[in-house]
Amino acid sequence: MLILSSLLLFILTTHSEALTPAAARDEFQEELVIRPLHSGDIYASFQFRTLWDTDFLQEGQKVSHYRLFPKSLGQVLSKFSVRELHISFTQGFWRTMQWGQPFIPSPPGAELWVWFHDTVSDVDGNWKELTNVLSGIFCASLNFIDLTNTVQPSASFKPLGLGNATDHRFLRYATLPREIVCTENLTPWKKLLPCGSKAGLAVLMKSEKLFHSSFHSQAVHIRPICQDEQCSSKAWELRQTLNVVFDLHTSGQGKKEWSLFKMFSRTLTEACPLASSSKVYVDITDNPELFELSPATPLLGQAVVLGDRRTYSVYDLSRAETFGQLRSFNLLLRDMLRPLLHAERYVAGFGLQTGEIHTVIYNNHPYRAFPVLLMDSVPWYLQLYIHTLTVTSKSRDNKPSYIHYQPAKDRHRPHLLEMLIQLPPHSMTEVTVQFERALLKWTEYTPDPNHGFYVGSSVVSALVPSMVAMRTNFTQDQPLFSSFVPVKEESSYFVRVYTEPLLVNLPTPDFSMPYNVICLTCTVVAVGYGSFYNLLTRTFQVDEPSPPLSKRLANLIRRMRGVPLLT
Amino acid sequence: MDGTLFRSVNKFFIIAFCLDIKSYKSFMHRPDSFFLATKMAAPLTLLLIVAVTIRAVLFRSSLAELISARVEVVSPLNAWKRVVEGLALLDLGVSPYSGDVFHETPLMIYLFHFTVDYAEIVFIVTDGITALALYLSIQTYNKDVFRKQKYALESDRYSADCLELLRSPKEMFYIPLKVAMFYLLNPFTILSCVAKSTCGLNNAIIALFIFCTLKGSALLSGILLALATYQSIYPLTLFAPALLFFLQRLYIPVNLRRSSFWFFTLQYAFMYVGSLVVITGLSFFLLGSWDFIPSVYGFIFSVPDLTPNIGLFWYFFAEMFEHFRLFFSCVFQINVFFYTIPLSIKLKEHPVFLIFMQIAIISIFKSYPTVGDVALYMAFLPAWSHLYRFLRNIFLVSCVLLACSALFPVLWHLWIYAGSANSNFYYAITLLFNFGQILLVADYFYAYLRREHHLTHGLYLKKKDGTEATLVLK
């Protein structure tokens, strides 16, 4: 077994050595830029670039050995003598006023523009055929491009690559604004990547997340470029781009926080092994001190894009330490501007019998512990069990130093629970208490009983340590908003936090049948009463059949006549 | 001619029976086996071991938590969770009766204040005591029954052809063991014990009360009856059968003009009421307030908590029109106590059967019944095994009770957790369950009366014309 595996290893290494010369001739780079937009949305832009110094257009020579460059596109280039090809599929409209400029712009729907080689004689024929072929490759309705929607712009679309061809006879431009972009367009697009969607950044491209966004655009750009500055050799460049704008602002309750997992519901586990460079850039130009990026990176990059100098945090995926201990890379941005004291509450459990109220209190102060007063008022129809009260901070029992509990009286007063809890610095404290749901009288339910019953907010009151000295002396010239709660100390200020009210469902009787229930229950009681009454008042007797009618009549007559009766 | 023949046959059987009695007597009155007949000690011990093992295993399993949340097994009156809550409130310095969660009596708090850590053992031992008390009571009762039967035979009070109705020591031998087994191995008792429902303690008090009564100790009987009343008010109705039993035992005729009757009645009533006052006073001194009276007895009578249970009250009062509530709660509560006087008159010769009837009626019609209450009266069923031939619909009733027991958790789940049924489903099952219980008790009552009728009037009754007669209630 060992011999076999070492043999296999040997074969593999020799094989890869044999391929190394080819690796110098083509290379692959991948890159993801994440940029928070001013509107609160997140702009994620993927770029995958494949470079190959081959010549598709050489007469009589067929390129047959493909490594990183997709063969389907290569064959298209050589067959139709394409010089430059730009195709984009976009869903949604890029709102420049809110989002600024995209890295690569594209119109809604499908756009295709192609520069043919100047040796092509029948440009329109080639164009027609090319659109049909591309339509097959990308599963799109590009075959609807015909002469009725094709134009030859004279000035707007210049070649972006090598060559200063100005003869716009070889340029064709068409858009299909109605084209609807969906998963079936994304799948062939992903297949063009060397690693597919198996490894590297393309792992993040889960279609249900990508298309659940405000803007989605995918594009393929092919052009010839210089390989170095002197332009001594020419290479073909294939750039695949994918731009998405996620609306995390509304789905994330207005927070500017994001993470890779929240956006793509995936995390990165490795770079594409075929890529020579694999990087993630995060734009941190705006408000870097208010947000915390995790994991932190020492690498910072600067780039001038669209006339603006931006600063980026750079993550190199080709380095193992990026992925950390968990072998998983989930980039996340946290809001540093949290209130020092925060509380929330929810009901746990299922069914309509019991439940548990969870109150979670956050102390976001980095180093100070402070006590808070928690007050809960729970209606009587949720019967609290105070012996199930637990208070835990940092997964340790945190016994309240003061508890005032007044249990409820049915239909008279609610439960009142007050306690003083010490919150450790930078911690989350969870208070749980179990309750039982009562069945009420049918007249006590609200008109919409299955909506549930509201439980008022719990109140968290605290003296929160202050970062700046407070003014304790009250003066007339203080603004009104600063003088509502009197300040007693310089070092802290008073805060009251209200949690969410709870909505709790109670079991309900059937409101439509009070008469039926009264009748049925009374029937059962009457059955009991009746059978006991029967047995108590009657005695056992032999069942003697009464004499027939004729006999009774005869006896009646006999009695009148004074004759002895019949027996 | 016929008469003399019968007489002689009768005499022969009486002699045969007397021989039987002698063997029975010699067995029952062996000096070393006053409490436990040695022959029965082994099976009883085995039974206790099995019962304790089942309970211990269930206590250790994950089922215990599930069972203790079942509404059929625990009611607001006797749930263990509420006992723990009451103790926790006491620890917080709040009176347990200031809220509406705790409804146990003050003595119960103090019992569990010391034994809360050994609660499981307390409940297992309680069940054992109940079973033992029932065992000894039925043993005593059987001896009593046999003695009376002998006197009746000797004084020719029984009809000539009812020999097959007479009870023999042989068939009565295993009845006490069966009673203990019916109590200990009844799934209802086991569930109640595993849920640590304090209903088991109330059952123990009632069983001890029955034991002391049948043993003839009026003082202990009065004290235990007072304790049972203090616990859950309804056993108050057991005063009548206990009094009748003592009167019968002391050969005092139930005659309102006789001073001896009034003397003993007042004596027993004084013992009962005196103990009740002492116990209540003790509770007052333990807590320093009368808060427990409305919280325990007011709670039982006014039925404010409509949590579903196996009884008739919860849905009835959840659906009741507000202005009829007081009227119907009075009617339903009077219903529980109402049967005492007519039953006492009808069964004044049979106080033990009267006790059974009273316990059964309480457990059917009380405001917060649980399966533990059902288990107590069901334990007596083997004692009436000789009534089997007169039972009319025992098959139907057993099927109804079994089906209902299985359907309770199913329909509860459908209503509360799955949401695919509503409260009517569960209500329908409680109705049927109570209907089955009523049928069962009425059937035993009927069978008992019919047997008594046959004993005096003969088993094979004839019509005037000599054909076979059918017996009807008129």
Global morphology of chain B:
globular
Q: Report the uncertain regions of chain A.
A: 1-24
The average pLDDT value of chain A, as a whole number, equals 85
Total E-strand runs of chain A: 27
The greatest inter-chain interface is formed by: A-B, 55 and 68 residues
InterPro entries (chain A): PIG-T (IPR007245)
Pfam families (chain A): Gpi16
Organism (chain A): Cyprinus carpio carpio
Protein name (chain A): Phosphatidylinositol glycan anchor biosynthesis, class T
Describe this structure in words.
The complex is a heterodimer of chains A (567) and B (474). Chain A is of the alpha+beta class and 567 residues long. Chain A has helices at residues 2-25, 71-79, 96-99, 123-137, 183-191, 207-210, 248-251, 260-264, 514-537, 549-561, and strands at residues 26-36, 42-52, 82-91, 109-116, 150-151, 171-176, 215-226, 234-246, 258-259, 277-283, 291-294, 300-305, 308-316, 332-335, 341-348, 354-363, 370-378, 382-393, 396-397, 402-406, 415-423, 427-437, 453-455, 459-465, 492-498, 502-504, 540-542. Chain A is flat, with a radius of gyration of 40 Å. Mean pLDDT of chain A is 85; it is low at 1-24. Chain B is an all-alpha fold. The longest helix of chain B is centred in the first third of the chain and has 36 residues, at 119-154. Chains A and B meet through β18, β20, α9 and β27 of A and α4, α15, α16, α17 and α20 of B.
